[in-house]
Write a structure and sequence with these properties.
heterodimer; A: Penicillin-binding protein 2a (Domain 2); Beta-lactamase; 2 domains; 23 strands; about 40% helix; about 20% strand; disordered C terminus; B: three-stranded antiparallel beta sheet; globular
Chain lengths: ~650, ~375
């Protein structure tokens, strides 16, 4: 269409005007864009830069090597073992099933664990490595490595896992580690990020648990760059963690092994060996025991059931958790309470007719025929109950209990073991608070022979014996050094007991095993200069009713196991220069002299000789029988005994 | 205006036309495209594949098309405007019935050797038909209601078809582009005031209709609006794209993190980093300086196009050039506003930089029209 020139000119002017208007608008909008860019890229750049860094950088933790645990001579009790495992990456494997089929020809795979691994692999991102076999032998790993080309996506890996080379011997002392659980996390208020690592191993029992904070070490960090899918692109920085502290225990692995082996000849028993000068726990045995390595690996349901159902309670550390009426082993405490109060002395005699009548009740001596004229020395050596009924009645319960506390009974000793029991040393006030009843004279008499309410653990009895032997307020110690730094020995100084009184009681203990009529004469040490001084104890589990007594009391051996008496023995040796104190409790073992004293003697002799004692240390008449007993012991053969290893 | 009005003898002929092309624009186009190649190379982790090389080939093909169109006299293109418009409508209908679904919408026709996106084509044919219409229309009738309704229908027909694909972004861009053409032609401003008021009313209606029986938009479109208004609402879902885009953009700082050093794009945090969000990569790696320089290149292209139009006494030529400039402006302005969080996320590529065939070929063809208008502009005294 043809337009007039005027029309054209007018149109051109208008278009020009509008074009300039539009261009102005566009320029303004671009100005806004520039301002916005300036705002975001210049003013807020730091904020966005930080957000970008947060996007791309992940911080991963590196688990530190857990501190090692040694015995007092440097024998390894807990170590970090190279653990060979096979991991698989889904995206590299291609056909997972074919690869696994090929792998299973090389290595034995646990079908249950394998199923779990496959499930996890399908759930996680395809580039996440998943462990499909754990704790392989070096040969298996080598076979996999050689066949690597046929196994795409499969890589052998080395990690660290906890191992307890002495297994059962130290299960109760050292304990074990296990993967941290939600329950653990809910119970402990510990911000350590390491605990957030899935399946991170923490101490679950014993020293492993109680010394967790020292053993764990500090996490290292790895700053890695990840992409949006979480795939690791590269490592930006690596700060190695600080390994946990090494801990050296006061325990002697050889002695501990001997104690465990000796206790294993009984059904259920425990023993504690202490250094009477330093308070060092040299051994703390509880039998039966269990293999802590099973717990590290993840114990099977069947094995766990078996442990829980066992009536001898292998999981319980009876040396510190078990509390028993101390029986006659309590008599030293009663004697000293009376001597210190001036209510008994060396010369005074009490006539034992086999029982004593207080009020309307008769209190029987273990010896039905009675001990006759009895002084303090005889009272202890022959363990006359009537003598102690009488002096206990004189002293009263509160003075007896005060003396018991001075000897470390009735209190929880602070050692890094699990479930340490406080035991019980009763007072009048205690009975009022606990039972709402008044203390009766009969209660005092029972306490006078370590029965009734009194409860003590083998650990407490060992502490008591150490204090008797040394005359000093010795405190038990389990940790010798942490990272090479000696933990202080706690020694409260002299007991503050008249040396004459102390000598009198110790003389009684010497006669227990060294005078012909002593209750543990058959468990004496024949080697001159090594003689032991001790005290037997038999604590009743049952109450003997009058009806039973009338019928004729059943012999202990005829009772079912659960109702038999506990056998106790506390001792120290050598008498002249005390070095070792030991306490032995054989649960439902019968009489202390028969069941517990021989065990205590064997243990003391091992400690004194620093190895299995020669038969010459035993009385000549017993040597053949003892030889049989010692040959039954399942000791670790020396070749198998691990020597000190350097840190990995 | 018939071709007789052109002083044919003063218009360059043959290969000499090449000398009379708007060369600054050509150079600027190459510069912008080069910027794009650089970014595509960087995003691929320093590799020509899979994006940079195909993009170069397509750009080469696009330049050939641009030159070819520029060689053909502008009056031919004016005469073709109606046919082109009809053809576009036909293709849009074809998409309606036989289109290939991609990203939840029917947008492409598979031609075998390439996928044709008719909605891209529609943007440019709309400019042509409107320019031809106003070239034809007498000056005094421009603002009469009947003569306003005709271009309105011309605009709304293809826009409606695009909206049905559904592609709201392109439909709005087409309507806006058409509106700009009417504005340039000189339609009375009152019409625009009315339309803007109506537009505001429509926005209100759209928002008010949500969740009712007469809901005007799809749910996904509402979600986009939500995300636009507050990306932090849903940082890992619908808001993820825009949140990550802003992080990339902002983290560039003054001079950027360096070529191929952008962590957001290299580590895949950025979505669609090679297409609609490519500007964020550029901003991350070259910073404020890089972003503004790209914007400056765009502005210069606009500048030379407007100068060319102002000096063009041929009404069709001038309107076409301005229309191409406006379309070009809408592309990059909306894309940049989108990645900066100033506009909702609509699928608009960054012209000449984003990876993609149709858009680039169509855009270069449009520049071919502007070049043809420039080469064949009336010369000498009237």
């Amino acid at each position: 269409m043809r337009h007039s020139p005027a029309d054209n000119a007018k149109s051109a002017r208008r278009i020009s005007r509008r074009a300039l208007l539009l261009a102005g608008g566009q320029a303004a909008f671009m100005g806004v864009l520039v301002l916005r860019m300036r705002y975001m890229q210049v003013e807020q750049a730091d904020k966005y830069r930080m957000l970008a860094e947060e996007n791309r950088i992940n911080i991963r933790l590196i688990a530190p090597a857990r501190g090692l645990i040694f015995d007092r001579n440097g024998v390894v009790l807990a170590e970090n073992e190279q653990n060979y495992r096979i991991v698989m990456v889904r995206e590299d494997a291609g056909d997972i099933e074919a690869t696994i089929a090929r792998l299973s020809q090389l290595v034995e795979l646990d079908p249950e664990a394998l199923n779990r691994a496959i499930k996890e692999m399908n759930k996680r991102s395809p580039f996440v490595p998943v462990t499909i076999a754990d704790r392989l032998r070096w040969e298996d790993l080598a076979r996999v490595a050689v066949n690597a080309p046929a196994l795409p996506g499969v890589t052998p890996e080395v990690g660290l896992s906890r191992r307890y080379p002495l297994a059962e011997d130290f299960a109760h002392i050292v304990g074990y580690v296990g993967p941290v659980s939600d329950y653990d996390l809910s119970k402990i208020d510990d911000p350590d990020p390491l605990l957030q690592i899935p399946k991170f191993q923490i101490g679950k029992l014993g020293v492993e648990k109680r010394m967790e904070s020292r053993l764990r070490g500090r996490a290292g960090t790895r700053r890695i760059e990840v992409n949006s899918a979480g795939r690791v692109m590269r490592e930006l920085e690596r700060i190695e963690g600080i390994p946990g502290d090494d801990i050296q225990l006061t325990v002697d692995a050889g002695l501990q092994n001997f104690v465990q082996a000796r206790l294993a000849l009984t059904e259920s028993a425990s023993a504690v060996v202490m250094d009477t000068q330093t308070g060092d726990i040299l051994a703390s045995g509880s039998s039966p025991s269990f293999d802590p390595n099973k717990f590290v690996r993840g114990i099977s349901v069947a094995d766990y059931r078996e442990l829980m159902d066992n009536k001898f309670r292998p999981m319980s550390n009876k040396a510190v958790q078990g509390t028993y009426p101390p029986g006659s082993t309590y008599k030293m405490v009663v004697a000293l309470a009376a001597l210190e109060e001036g209510l008994a002395d060396e010369r005074e005699t009490i006539t034992c007719k086999g029982f004593i009548t207080v009020g309307k009740r008769r209190f029987h001596c273990w010896k039905r025929s009675g001990h006759g004229v009895t002084d303090m020395n005889k009272g202890i050596a022959e363990s006359c109950d009537v003598y102690f009924y009488e002096i206990a009645r004189r002293v009263g319960i509160d003075k007896i209990s005060e003396m018991a506390r001075r000897f470390g009974l009735g209190m929880r000793h602070d050692l890094p073991m699990s479930g340490i029991a406080a035991g019980l040393v009763p007072t009048k006030q205690w009975k009022r608070d606990k039972h709402g009843a008044e203390w009766l004279i009969g209660d005092t008499l029972n306490a006078g022979i370590g029965q009734g309410y009194v409860l003590a653990s083998p650990l407490q009895l060992a502490v008591m014996t150490s204090r008797l032997a040394s005359g000093r307020e010795i405190w038990p110690r389990l940790i010798k050094t942490i990272n090479g730094v000696e933990t202080p020995i706690r020694d409260g100084g002299p007991m503050g007991i008249d040396p004459e009184n102390m000598r009198l009681v110790l003389r009684g203990m010497f006669n227990v095993s060294n005078s012909r009529k002593g209750t543990a004469y058959s468990s004496r040490i024949a080697e001159a200069g090594m003689e032991l001084a001790g005290k037997t104890g038999t604590s009743q589990v049952r109450n003997i009713t009058m009806a039973e007594r009338a019928r004729g009391v059943l012999k202990d051996e005829d009772l079912p196991w659960e109702r038999r008496d506990h056998a106790l023995f506390v001792a120290y040796a050598p008498f002249e220069k005390p070095r070792y104190a030991v306490s032995v409790v054989v649960e439902h073992g019968g009489g202390g002299s028969k069941a517990a004293a021989p065990v205590a003697r064997d243990i003391l002799l091992y400690a004194l000789y620093g190895g299995v004692p020669p038969l010459s240390a035993y009385p000549a008449s017993q040597r053949k029988r003892i030889g049989d007993v010692l040959s039954q012991l399942k000791l670790r053969v020396p070749e198998e005994r691990p020597v000190r290893r350097v840190r990995i | 205006m018939s071709y007789l009005e052109y002083r044919v003898q003063t218009v360059p002929t043959g290969w000499r036309k090449i000398l009379h092309m708007n060369w600054p624009v050509v150079v600027l186009l190459v510069a912008v495209a080069g910027y794009g190649f650089l970014m595509l190379y960087s995003i691929a982790g320093g590799s020509l594949q899979p994006w940079a090389e195909p993009q170069m080939i397509r750009f080469g093909a696009g330049m050939v098309i641009m030159f070819a169109i520029a060689m053909v006299p502008i009056w031919f293109w004016r005469n073709m405007a109606g046919l082109a418009y009809a053809g576009t409508l036909f293709l849009l209908l074809l998409v309606e019935f036989f289109g290939v679904a991609g990203m939840g919408a029917q947008r492409w026709i598979d031609l075998g050797f390439m996928r044709l996106q008719p909605s891209e084509l529609a943007k440019i044919t709309l400019v042509m038909i409107l320019a031809a219409y106003y070239d034809w229309l007498d000056e005094d009738r421009i603002s009469r209601p009947l003569w306003v309704l005709i271009p309105l229908a011309i605009i709304l027909l293809p826009s409606f078809l695009v909206l049905r694909q559904p592609d709201l972004g392109t439909a709005i861009l087409m309507m806006t582009g058409g509106g700009i053409m009417m504005f340039l032609a000189g339609v009375h401003w009152l019409y625009f005031a009315v339309v803007l008021a109506a537009g505001a009313g429509l926005v209100y209606a759209v928002l008010a209709s949500r969740g009712t029986s007469w809901q005007l938009l799809n749910d996904y479109q509402y979600r986009r609006i939500d995300t636009f208004l507050d990306p932090s609402n849903d940082p890992l879902g619908a808001g993820y794209n825009i949140t990550q885009a802003k992080i990339a953009l902002g983290s560039g700082g003054w001079t950027g993190r360096g070529f191929m050093q952008g962590t957001q794009s290299r580590l895949n945090f950025l979505p669609e980093k090679q297409t609609d969000f490519i500007f964020t990569t550029l901003a991350e790696e070259f910073g404020f300086v890089g972003s503004v320089s790209l914007l400056a290149l765009y502005a210069l292209i606009l500048f030379f196009l407007v100068i060319s139009a102002l000096n063009n006494r041929d009404r069709f030529g001038a309107l076409t050039t301005l229309g191409v400039a406006a379309t070009f402006f809408l592309y990059f302005a909306v894309n940049m506003a989108m990645v900066m969080g100033l506009a909702p996320v609509v699928g608009v590529p960054l012209p000449l930089v984003s990876y993609g065939g149709s858009a680039m070929l169509v855009l270069l063809a449009a520049f071919g029209l502007a070049q043809s208008a420039h080469v064949h502009r009336p010369r000498g005294k009237r």
